[in-house]
Every structure is written in structure tokens, then in C-alpha cells.
Design goal:
Blueprint: H1 12-23, E1 27-31, E2 37-41, H2 42-58, E3 66-70, H3 75-86, E4 90-93, H4 100-110, E5 114-117, H5 122-128, E6 137-140, E7 155-157, H6 158-163, E8 179-184, E9 194-198, H7 199-210, E10 222-225, H8 232-235, H9 237-244, E11 247-250, H10 257-266, E12 271-274, H11 276-288, E13 299-302, H12 309-318, E14 322-328, E15 335-338, H13 350-357, E16 361-363, E17 368-372, E18 387-392, E19 415-423, E20 428-434, E21 439-441, E22 444-446, H14 448-456, E23 461-471, E24 475-484, H15 492-500, E25 511-514, H16 528-534
Parallel strand pairs: 1-11, 3-4, 3-5, 4-8, 5-6, 6-7, 10-11, 10-12, 12-13, 13-14, 24-25
Antiparallel strand pairs: 1-2, 8-9, 14-15, 15-16, 16-20, 17-18, 18-19, 19-20, 21-22, 23-24
Helix pairs in contact: 1-2, 1-3, 1-9, 2-3, 7-9, 10-11
The structure holds adenosine monophosphate.
């Protein structure tokens, strides 16, 4: 027997419809790319997203066509999220930090018909425009007064383009499984691969973001996604915000400590999200100006890389801001787990709580997790056994765009995350490492992430990376690479002694190299492949 409930499709357009209807007066505040702070409301964004849809229809854009964006977090990008997907086209957010060759590859692979670009990226696009074979024209996201001279073919000004359009547009009644947006993974090897989200997966993921045990977004919050809108949909916040009517603050191109602090303070942001490197910048700024506090901020979501214990403690103890450690991947829309405490943890001593908070958290409803050994046998959820982390669920990819990478699911629809993790009896998952980064020493595995987190706990260490280096006896041994804090000093011996107090003796790195910088991927993760290439053949003192 079938249920007798309405089969209304879950569509992205329904989110902005809801925001307009029930939260039309709520503000969206942006640091614009041109400089000034811009303010308007969901009602304004709603009208302008319909103008975007009409402009695209005027270009002859049809359902399923890909439209690229190279843009910061601002209100105009927000309008594109709704205008493009709402009218049935596919929003393709391109990461502008990729190398020009990779951007060329991605735009051609996606067959983008038009690209919307912030002023910042016009020179970058001018360099590669003659290689972008499918692009018919460019829309520069600014007004006439700031429109640059450009060699981009068929370039038009965003404000002029949409200013001419009607704000009446009937969103099409799409199939909820239709493609809505596309984001390429910043693979450290091989070409980037496209993850194609659907309207349904996006709306379901938004519900999860709004749950209290998820990220807890609601109409009571002022939310600032510092995580870029070109990284896995700014972790779903753009859609979840419209679903719940949260006030949004968009930081534009200002990702440095002082710029972020200014918006947190002036706009009374209560919830904000970004990768650890961004928070490192904010904490450094706050420490340098010791009178600055975070009185409005209630919660900070840290994900994308492991949040070090020292960072969690700094937010919670020094600034009274609760940390939610989160884990996910582009392939997962991206949220998989969040590190909220369970009821039974309330009132426990902080030392016990922090042991839970450093873990990446518990699965959201909708995400199945398991860990397996190399033969695919499921491992116990005892917090000790670690193995390859597999996931499945309605907002997890089925396969990459155009079949790149072949079949990515096993017979039971499990997707291999490439992470190695433990699961404990309370359901908390902890990432031990990327499977490619784990250090294999004499048959034992050493977690590079654990060592890095311990190293940054030393007051003289700003950033740390640990890689495995070949060793004649142990196969591989850990090498610690360190950037020192400005003005701080520490010797190799002191650091190793410090590490020896934190981890088992056999896990202590064999050597330390002090460096001025460490390579990162376009999404801010340590680029370990490059480090391994650079230190291939490095002679450890123990070798
Ligand atoms: P991306 O698709 O670029 O967001 O990368 C996803 C990968 O980032 C995951 O598979 C993890 O390896 C890593 N990652 C994300 N969040 C965390 C976290 N909280 N702790 C450790 N690694 C993380």
C-alpha cells in the first residue's frame, strides 16, 4: 500500500521562495568586492535571483546547461546560487585559487556556457579565455561605474544585465533529482573530478545543517560563512540560511584576521564557519590586540582539516566560544559528521570533554559510516581499531561527472572516503589520516594528523606538517616540518622532547626541519604530495 501524501519535489527554488515569504525583511550583509559594505534583504535577493533567471533565459540557457562562477562570498554570488539553479541550469562554482591550467580544464570539462566573475578574477580569465572552448560570454559582477576595460569576449556588466530584467519569473517544476550544482574536487593527483549535486540532495542536506545536533542554523542566528562559496557550497550554509531565515554576513575577499574580526564584531555574528588556517589568522589577530574579545560569537564550526586541540581550547577557554568540529567532503555535499556533545557529556570535566571535541564528531541523520580493513571486513566501533572510512547516504555522490574515475561505489553503495578513522561506542568518528598520508613504520601506522596537532600545541610553532620519509630499517619514519611563530624560537631538541611527552616513543618524529612556508592545496589543506616529492631521499639522522 502506498502512503497518501503529496509528492512535492524538493527544489532549490522553494528555499528562496520560503525566505522571501517568511523572512523577507531579514538582512544579508556583504563586504563587496568594490570595497563598501552592502546591505539588503532576502526579499531583495529573491527579486534579483529572478532577474538573474530571466537574464539567463534571454541568453538561451536551458535546463542542465552549466554556468560557471569565479566569485567570493557576496550577495551577488548568493543571487546566482538561486537564479542559476532555480531556473534549471547548473551552478558550477569554480575555485579561483586553482592554477590557470586547472581552471581551463575544469571549465572545458564542465562545458560552461557562460562565466560570471568577480572583478578580482577578470585578469585571470583574460589569460585563459582563448582556451575556454565552450564559453559564449562573461558577466562581470559589478556595476557600470566599476566595469573594467576587458579583452574578455562578449563581456557584460552584471548590474546592467539584470537591471533590464523583469523580477517576474515562474520557477520551473523540475524533477527533484535534476542536477543543480557542480563542484570539482581539488584532487592532489590527476585531474579534478566533478561532483554533481541534485535539488533533492541539496534540500535534504540543508535540513541536516539546520538541526541542532548538526550545525544548528536558525532564524535566531547571524551566520558568517568564511568557508568560500566555491568550496562545497560553503558547507551548505547558503541553502540552509534560506531554509531557516538566518541573517547572513558575507566576508567578500577579506579572509585575514582583522577583516574577519571587523565583521564578526560589527554585525554581531553568532555562528561562523571556516578551515583551521582562517581561525589561526583570527586568533593571531586577537592575541596581538589583547583588548579584543568575541562577545557575540556563540559557536565556530571548524572543518576541512583537523582542528588542533590548542585551537579548540583557545576559542573555548580564552574567548568563550563553543567549537563544533566538523568533517565532510565535496563528495558529501559536504557534511558527514559534527562534534556536538551528547547529553551525557554535560557537566563532565573539561579534560574529558576536550577528548571528545578533538574527534571529528558523530554522523548526521542521513549519513551511514563504517570502517573496514584492507579486505573490506568491518572493524569494531571501539574507538581503537582504525580502518578505511566508508560512507553512504542521499547527499553522497554516486559517481563523478561524465563517469571520471569509473565506478566509485561498492556493491552495497558504500563510497570510500580515502580517510582512515576510528569509530567509538558513542558514535564519534576520529580521522587518523588520509590513507595516502599515514606513515607506515615497521608494520605500525602513525597518524600524521596526531603529530601535527601535538606539534602546533607548542607555543613556538605556528604550523606543522608531518610526512613519512624512507627508512632502511622501519620502511618509513616521520619527519616534522615546522613554521615558527613570529619572533619565537625553539630548537629541534626542545621540540622533540616536547613531542616525546605527548605520544608513544616510537611515534616521535625522527627529525625536525624548520621552514618558512608549507605548500597548501587550493582548498587550504597541506599539500603532502609536494612535501613528499621535495623530501624524497631526505637522510634522517636515524637512518
Ligand atoms: P574536500 O573535499 O576538499 O573538502 O576534502 C575532504 C577531505 O578533507 C576529507 O576526506 C578529509 O581528509 C579532510 N577533512 C575534512 N574535514 C576534516 C576534519 N575535520 N579533520 C580532518 N580532516 C578533514
Amino acid at each position: 500500500m502506498r502512503g497518501l501524501m503529496q509528492d512535492r519535489p524538493l527544489l532549490i527554488s522553494s528555499l528562496i521562495e520560503y525566505a522571501n515569504q517568511y523572512h523577507g525583511d531579514v538582512e544579508l550583509v556583504s563586504r563587496s568586492v568594490e570595497g563598501p559594505i552592502h546591505r539588503y534583504t532576502y526579499a531583495d535577493a529573491y527579486k534579483r535571483s529572478k532577474q538573474v533567471a530571466n537574464a539567463l533565459a534571454g541568453f538561451g540557457v536551458r535546463e542542465g546547461d552549466r554556468i560557471g562562477t569565479l566569485a567570493w562570498n557576496t550577495y551577488r554570488h548568493f543571487e546566482l546560487y538561486y537564479g542559476i539553479s532555480g531556473m534549471g541550469a547548473v551552478l558550477h562554482t569554480i575555485n579561483p585559487r586553482l592554477f590557470p591550467d586547472q581552471i581551463t580544464y575544469i571549465a572545458n570539462h564542465a562545458e560552461d556556457r557562460f562565466i560570471f566573475t568577480d572583478l578580482t578574477f577578470v585578469p585571470l580569465l583574460e589569460q585563459i579565455a582563448d582556451k575556454l572552448t565552450s564559453v559564449e560570454g562573461y558577466v562581470v559582477m559589478t556595476d557600470e561605474a566599476n566595469m573594467p576595460e576587458t579583452s574578455l569576449p562578449n563581456a557584460v556588466c552584471y548590474e546592467t544585465l539584470i537591471g533590464k530584467q523583469s523580477a517576474d519569473f515562474d520557477w520551473p517544476k523540475l524533477d527533484e533529482s535534476a542536477a543543480s550544482s557542480l563542484c570539482y574536487t581539488s584532487g592532489t593527483t590527476g585531474n579534478p573530478k566533478g561532483v554533481m549535486y541534485s535539488h533533492r540532495s541539496t534540500v535534504l542536506h540543508s535540513f541536516a545543517v539546520c538541526t541542532i545536533d548538526g550545525i544548528g542554523m536558525s532564524s535566531h542566528e547571524v551566520v558568517m560563512p568564511v568557508v568560500p562559496m566555491f568550496h562545497a557550497n560553503a558547507w551548505g550554509t547558503i541553502y540552509a540560511a534560506a531554509m531557516c531565515g538566518a541573517k547572513m554576513v558575507f566576508p567578500g575577499a577579506g579572509m585575514d584576521g582583522p577583516s574577519i574580526y571587523q565583521l564578526l564584531d560589527e554585525e554581531k555574528v553568532s555562528l561562523t564557519l571556516a578551515v583551521p588556517t582562517v581561525w589561526l589568522g583570527l586568533l593571531q589577530h586577537l592575541r596581538a590586540e589583547s583588548n579584543k574579545k568575541l562577545p557575540y560569537m556563540q559557536r565556530v564550526v571548524i572543518g576541512g582539516s583537523a582542528a588542533p586541540q590548542s585551537m579548540i581550547e583557545a576559542f573555548e577557554k580564552d574567548y568563550d566560544v563553543q567549537v563544533i568540529h566538523a568533517w565532510g567532503m565535496t563528495e558529501m555535499s559536504p557534511l558527514g559528521t559534527t562534534g556536538n556533545m551528547r547529553a551525557k557529556h554535560a557537566g563532565r570535566p573539561y579534560d574529558e570533554q576536550i577528548a571528545v571535541k578533538v574527534k571529528q564528531g558523530r554522523a548526521l541523520y542521513g549519513v551511514d559510516l563504517k570502517i573496514v580493513d584492507d579486505d573490506g571486513n568491518e572493524l569494531p566501533r571501539d574507538g581503537v581499531a582504525f580502518g578505511r572510512l566508508l560512507v553512504r547516504g542521499p547527499w553522497i555522490t554516486n559517481g563523478y561527472f561524465k563517469g571520471e574515475g569509473g565506478d566509485v561505489l561498492d556493491a552495497d553503495s558504500w563510497f570510500d572516503t580515502g580517510d582512515v578513522a576510528t569509530l567509538d561506542p558513542d558514535g564519534y568518528m576520529q580521522i587518523t589520516d588520509r590513507s595516502k598520508d599515514v606513515i607506515k613504520s615497521g608494520g605500525e601506522w602513525i597518524s600524521s594528523i596526531d603529530l601535527e596537532n601535538d606539534a602546533v600545541g607548542h607555543p613556538a610553532v605556528q604550523e606543522a606538517a608531518v610526512i613519512g620519509v624512507a627508512h632502511p630499517k622501519w620502511d618509513e619514519r616521520p619527519l616534522l616540518l615546522v613554521i615558527k611563530q613570529d619572533g619565537a624560537d625553539v630548537s629541534k631538541e626542545e621540540l622533540l622532547e616536547y613531542m616525546a611527552g605527548k605520544v608513544a616513543k616510537w611515534q616521535v618524529p625522527d627529525d625536525v626541519v624548520f621552514v618558512d612556508e608549507l605548500p597548501h592545496t587550493a582548498t587550504g589543506k597541506l599539500l603532502k604530495t609536494k612535501l613528499r616529492d621535495e623530501y624524497e631521499g631526505y637522510r634522517l639522522p636515524t637512518a
